Prior knowledge:
This protein is mainly α.
Amino acid sequence: MSPQLSRTGEWFLHSGIQQSDGGVARYYLVDAGRNLPASTEITGYAISAFVYLHSFTHDARYLDRALSGARFLTRAWDAVSQTMPFEIEPAAFSYFFDCGIVVRGLLSVWRATGEQEFLHTAIATGQSMARDFVSPTGDFHPILALPAKTPLPRDALRWSRTATCYQLKSAMAWWDLFEATGDTAFIEPYERVLEASLRSYAGFLPGHAERTKVMDRLHAFCYFLEGLLPRAADARCAAALRDGIARAAWHLRDIAPEFERSDVYAQLLRVRLYADWLGAAPLDRPAAEFEAARLAAFQVADSDARGTRMNGGYWFGRRNAGNLPYINPVSAAFAAQALELWETSRAGGAQAHRHLLI
C-alpha cells in the first residue's frame, strides 16, 4: 500500500468524517471547522472505500468501519414505505442515483463479510429503484419527495435533476445485484438505462453556458463512463468508452486553469485503467501520468492542530489555483483509489476487480 493510500485511510479513520452511528458526512467545511450532515449516498461510498482499504491491508479497523456504515444504512431503510431516504432527519427525499450507490456499498460489505442483512437491504433498495422511480415514459425520475414518493420537477440545467446518462453508474447496481443473486429481473432495468445513455451521451457535454458548470457536468459524465464497465466487451460500449474518455479529457484540460475538481481527475484516471484492463480502450500513458500528477497535488498535508481533521484527505477542488475550503469523502476515496490503481499499473501489478470500484 502506498503512503498516499495509507494517509487517506488514516484520514477516514480519525478525521471524524464518519459519525459514531456509522453515517458519513457529505463534506468537512474547513473554514467553519465542522461537518455537514451525513447522507446515505456518502455513507455508501465510504463503506465501499473501507472495504477497498481492507482488501489491501487486512486491517480489521477498516472492516469494522465498513460494518458500522452498513448498519447505519440498514437502519436508514424504511421497511414500511420501502424507501431509502437521502438524509435521515428529516427523511424528505429519495434520490435514484443515491440508492444505486447505497446498493453497491452494501454489496461490497456483504461480499467481505457474508452478512445477509446487507444483501437483503441491497435487494430491497434495488427493487425500490425499479418500482418507485420509473416514469410513464420508461426512464427513471431523479428525485422523489417523501413520504408520497412524488417526483420532483426536472431541470435541464442541473444534471442531478435530470434522467440522463450519468444515471448509468447507479443503474450498475442492478447488474451487480444480478451477479450477486442470479435474478435476471435485475438485467432489464440496467439495459434500459444503458440503451438510453448510449443514445444520448454525446449531447451531455458541454451542456451549460458556464464553464465552471461544465466541470461539474464532467464529474457526472464520468459516472456514465464508469457505468459502461460491466458491458465493456460490447462493441458499442467499448466505442463509447474510447469516445467518452477523449471528450472528458479535452474538456478537463480546457477548463482546469479556471476550475478543476479532484474527483474528475480521479474518475477519468480510473476509467482509463479499467477500460484498458477490460480490453475496451488502450491506455494513453502520457495522459494518465498527467492526470495522476495533477490529482496527487490535491492531497492535504496539514500537521497543525487541525491535522486529524484534514491530513490525508483530498481538497474537493481548486479555482484559479486556490483550493476550495472543502474536504469531501467521495473525492478522497476516488482519488486514493485512482492513484493506487495507477501505481499498481505502473508496477505491473494485478488488475483490480470491477466490484472494488468505489
